[in-house]
Amino acid sequence: MRDQYARPEVSPDVAVAASSPVESSPKIKAEVEGLNFFYEKLQALKNINMVFIANQVTAIIGPSGCGKSTLLRCFNRIHDLYPETRYEGKIILQPSGINLIGPETDPLEMRMRMSMVFQKPNAFPKSVFDNVAFGLRLRGISGKELTIQVEQSLRAAALWDEVKDRLRESAYTLSGGQQQRLCIARALATEPEILLFDEPTSALDPIATAKIENLIFDLKREVTVVIVTHNMQQAARVSDSTAFMYLGELIELAPTKVMFENPAIKLTEEYITGHFG
Amino acid sequence: MSDFKRIIAKRKRQDFVFNIVGIVCTLVGIATLGALLGDLLMDGLTRLNWTFLTSFPSRFAERAGILSSWVGTLLIMLVTAFAAVPLGVGAGIYLEEYARKNWLTNLIEINIANLAGVPSIIYGLMALGLLVYQFKLGQSVLTGGLTLAFLILPIVIVATREALRTIPQGIREAAYALGSTKWQVVRHHLLPYSLGGTMTGIIIALSRAIGETAPLITIGALTFIAFLPPLPLKTQPPFLSLEWLWSPFSVLPIQMFNWVSRPDQNFVVNAAGAGLVLIVVTLLLNAIAILIRYRVRKRIKW
Q1: Is the complex ipTM higher than 0.85?
Q2: Are strands A241-246 and A249-255 parallel, antiparallel or unpaired?
């Protein structure tokens, strides 16, 4: 079935040039080179090559099981928590040039440099304050500095006004949408190099979803954002570049506008127009 | 139509019959328990008073008390808890969070589950051979406490693991994603969130241990003891003393066993009194377990 679709080389240079026509030389945040990923014998990612531009939102779309979450979870090495997982290839983080998935790289360090917001809001059963403070405390921040940074993060996640009087209450007293924004605040607090979103709104209602989408759109001034979503309208609304994945392969990577109006590959078009997936 | 009615009537009769059978079954259980408690109360309450609680055993039934045995029970439970809780919780955390899942850990898992079902007297025999003869710990409070700790260790391990399993994987991933080490995840998240389940398991295990007789008789607990272990507090530095660990002991169930086996009817009444004390202590432990579970559940909802 794959064979009927020609698969042109998506070279990083093309994608870079295309994704931001205004700026002369957009900064690259991460380069993925020949990435393979295995769950035991099952190959979930096949020779992925792509780039992520700094201070942009890159959306990864594709049908269930295409490997989009697997790709995202490579970035904070969360796969390492589970046995029988294996990476091949490189994810080069710029400007440091460190290979994120290299055997010499400490997964713990990568997790401290990345932040992830998960599909289901997974606030800790602690107070609102302690949820945001946890990552900061791990980094040795305490006292007044801690209080200041927690407030900043809650403001950045557009949650401060709703929770400023209930910082000591359990996070579980918040609504689902508020909990997800709390998770975003918790992720922002540690000043990550890349903010990873794994279908962050799939458990939320449309109003809560809109709030989070606005937030993601604003966040790219501060941080590079990668968002996995199965909602194509969402990808179109929030992202600058979109990557379409299918059966563990990257099919197409292009500026979002181009991708949705004039996809280069037939399979992408069929997916976007709802013919399968 | 009439056919329908006939079938419906028949099925309703079946329903009714089963209802009655169910009530009878329930009543048999409740009535037995009620009779047991009632009998114990009638016999025991007459004997239950301050002197009974503060007297040593005696050859004369009316002068005999349970001082040495309830103090013994208390001290044994203290040793049991101090030994079984850290070991059991530690092993549970290791098996659930650290150990790789392979044939060896599977084997260990199956064995722990089986250990919980081993008759308690076997633990007594093991303790007699290992603790009394091999390690020369004597027929002491320490030996008794450790024996019961071995006995309830599997229960504590299983309870800890069950409690850890109720924590959603998303919470672990969130904590790791922020850069926690395994120990930080355990210390700041898994331990506090699983506390309710773990504590409940521990208290259930302790309330099983408190009623154990066979293993303690096997290691040589006394049935007649007219002195208390030395006090843990001293007037001279270092003020704390662990001498009581080496003291011989008796416990409530052994005292009861001893009294019941005497021909004098008055001693049987004494046994009922001691039984009441034991039941009250066990019920108290269970009440604490329920209270903790209730409080933790109110605080943490998934």
Answers
A1: yes
A2: antiparallel
